[in-house]
Amino acid sequence: MFELFPNSKTFLSIGPLSIQWYAVLILTGAFLAYYLSLRNTRKMKYPDEYLEDIFLYVLWAGIIGARLWYCVFYDFAFFIKNPLEIIAIWDGGLAIQGGFIAGIVVAYFYTKRHNLSFLRLADAIVPNILLAQAIGRWGNFINKEAHGDIVDASFFDGPLAFLKDGMYINGHYYEPTFFYESVLCVIGFIIIVFILKKHQNKRGDLLWAYLMWYGVIRFFIEGLRTDSLMLGPIRMAQLTSIVYIVIGLLGYCGLFERFFKKPKPTMIFDLDGTILDTQNGILATYEMLFAKYRTKAEFSEEIQAEVLGPSLQEMFVKHFPDEDPAKLYEEYRQYNSEIFLKVNKPMDHAIEMLKELKENGYVVGVVSTKRRDTVEDNLKDFDMLQYVDAIVGAEDVQKQKPSPEGLNKILKDNRWSRDEAIYVGDSVMDIAAAKNAGLYSVGYFFNPKKKDNLIAAKANEYIDDLKDVLTIIKKDIYFTSDQK
């Protein structure tokens, strides 16, 4: 039998099974916070999997933490004697502060494991928790809990009249403190997300603002409630709120920055036209293919400019549609290897730059549209492979640049920081890939014919000498595409 009881604790009953309004509202709030957070992390170009993981881990940790906090400070002796009652959350009894603390701890360790910026992610997620709390408080209304002291019926004359019937409990009317908190949470969300965020000075400011805002409102509302969790004579929520306020204030003033020092930026480079001057070798090899399968005259200046950057597969399909790409690749590789050392060389200052990065503890990666083994061979030829920690080549991804797949892969596989990462490349595709991955992009002017297009790509910064990379990494900025 299907029953819907909007005026009871039960949201839905199907035979012996029932779903409580309390659970529905908590999950509604959680999924709203998830949706808003997902919008933020997508703007930051995070792969969705990170937020999906955090949401699941934090949701479970938050529910468990909130319940245990309630059980410990409500009636610890009772729950020890009746352990099965600990899981009876459908009757109410979740302490949001315990849930928040548990969730923050789990999220912190997740970000450390995956080398993500805890403060940057917290800014993207935590303010949205205010809306989840605002919705969840209505579960208290339905469960007839989290209210204040007895009031006269006239208290509900006016704008609070719609709450009057729901606040009539066991023959008395009670002050709707749950409603105060719900409204103030919405106000806090608006202030932090739509006002403070526009004037944010550093990572973590929105997290610290949440702690201060919620700490203040909860401290005063808790003083009105009649069902506070106690630690001796002290209202536990007020004590925790004071801790929130102090931590938030100190964090907002920047006193925790030494505990959240920015890591050295992850350094990722394109290969051809960036750290290796392979233009002559590439053009000579394509010229050989055109001479064999088309005509040398068809290898125009326009096509010459086009083949510098895209993957071999893409160019083979476009310019040699009737030939076997695998056969073309083997011919290309064989001929290119034969002439490689004769016509190619490292870019000016490339070796010195990579050596200094390595000596100073920076991790260095290469993401190229060439096959990985070819990249390794090219670097070995100039004794540069020793300075490179990881390589992603054409066979490692399904989509080539400007897709961010290669950059995301090298970051994820090596657990390198994506919140402090620089990608240096010489083509429009390189800059687009960096932006699509949310990385700080540096456009390198090597080919004068590509300069105008590269400027139009709007990289974060431009250089015409690789030694300038050593100056960029010393800047006191956030190395992300939005520099936040």
The tally of strands reads 16
End-to-end distance: 54 Å
What characterizes the major β-sheet? Answer: 6 strands, parallel
Which whole number gives the mean pLDDT? Answer: 92
Strand content: 5-15%
| Low confidence ranges | 1-5
Shape: elongated
Key terms:
single chain; 484 residues; alpha/beta; 6-stranded parallel β-sheet; 3-stranded antiparallel β-sheet; 17 helices; 10% strand; elongated; disordered N terminus
Descriptive account of the structure:
By secondary structure, the chain is an alpha/beta fold. 52% of the residues lie in helices and 10% in strands. It has helices spanning 21-43, 48-81, 96-113, 118-143, 177-194, 205-222, 236-252, 279-293, 301-306, 312-319, 325-343, 350-359, 372-381, 405-414, 428-437, 451-456, 469-472; strands spanning 2-3, 10-14, 17-20, 150-151, 168-169, 172-174, 230-231, 234-235, 266-269, 276-277, 345-346, 364-367, 390-392, 421-425, 440-444, 461-463. α2 (48-81) crosses α3, α6 runs antiparallel to α7 and α8 (279-293) crosses α11. The protein is elongated. The two termini are 54 Å apart. Mean pLDDT is 92; it is low at 1-5.
